[in-house]
Write a structure and sequence with these properties.
- By secondary structure, the protein is α+β, with helices and mostly antiparallel strands.
- Strands 1, 2, 3, 4, 5, 6, 7, 8 and 9 form a 9-stranded antiparallel β-sheet that branches.
- It catalyses: pyridoxamine 5'-phosphate + O2 + H2O = pyridoxal 5'-phosphate + H2O2 + NH4(+); pyridoxine 5'-phosphate + O2 = pyridoxal 5'-phosphate + H2O2.
- Its EC number is 1.4.3.5.
- Belongs to the pyridoxamine 5'-phosphate oxidase family.
Length: 213
């Protein structure tokens, strides 16, 4: 057994104080996200973990990329027939998680998920590089495939087929919007006395509370 008892880090880069935060969590997210995006040590500030509930009752977590956020929520894209898509279809709740070690910050978001309008998915799909569009068509995401060559051969076929034509968005590929009802902002602090402020939606207003670390 490897002993990890001494793997410790001192958190002292910032603080999270009630008098300095935004009253709306999306605005607070925007401020933190912009800081993360501008930090040279963070290559993908929009990388987030999303956890959904599987049929066996066990949560499953994977990394996806946030592609937009609005006052309503957080938008990402996926294959609707994937494991995450099927899990969302049965249970519309999910947990999103951002972790930015360089800033000693994390954000935990509990949300209800909905598919976005088809025309919005169309717009984003056709804004992607052609290779990414073909990849979405080629991959039967989460399904068992015989080997790597299966994908590569299928890709070659589609490259020829759509060499000069627009690639239609697959009906089983598109976006979700995660509409938050709880958002926790975590800031590392010395002596493990971290700052944790949680926004909880009550009717149409956000209630802000401090949690013990």
């Amino acid at each position: 057994m490897e002993n990890l008892h001494d793997k410790r880090k001192v958190y002292e880069k910032s603080q999270l104080i009630e008098s300095e935060i935004k009253q709306n969590p999306i605005e607070q997210f925007r401020d933190w996200f912009l800081e993360a995006s501008e930090n040279p040590g963070i290559s993908e500030a929009n990388a987030m973990a999303i956890s959904t509930l599987e049929e066996d009752g066990c949560p499953r977590t994977r990394m996806v990329l946030l592609k937009a956020y609005t006052h309503e929520g957080f938008i990402f894209y996926t294959n609707y027939d994937s494991r995450k898509g099927k899990a969302i279809e049965k249970n519309h709740k999910a947990c999103l998680h951002f972790f930015w070690p360089m800033l000693e910050r994390q954000i935990i978001i509990k949300a209800d998920l909905e598919k976005i309008a088809g025309n919005l998915s169309d717009g984003y799909f056709h804004s992607r590089p052609k290779g990414s569009q073909l990849g979405a068509v080629v991959s039967p995401q989460s399904q068992v495939i015989p080997n790597r060559e299966f994908l590569e051969e299928k890709l070659k076929e589609l490259e020829k087929q759509f060499e000069s034509d627009e690639i239609p968005r697959p009906e089983n590929w598109g976006g979700y919007i995660a509409k938050p009802y709880e958002i926790e902002f975590w800031q590392g602090r010395p002596n493990r006395l971290h700052d944790r402020l949680i926004y909880q939606l009550e009717d149409l207003d956000w209630k802000i509370s401090r949690l013990a670390p």
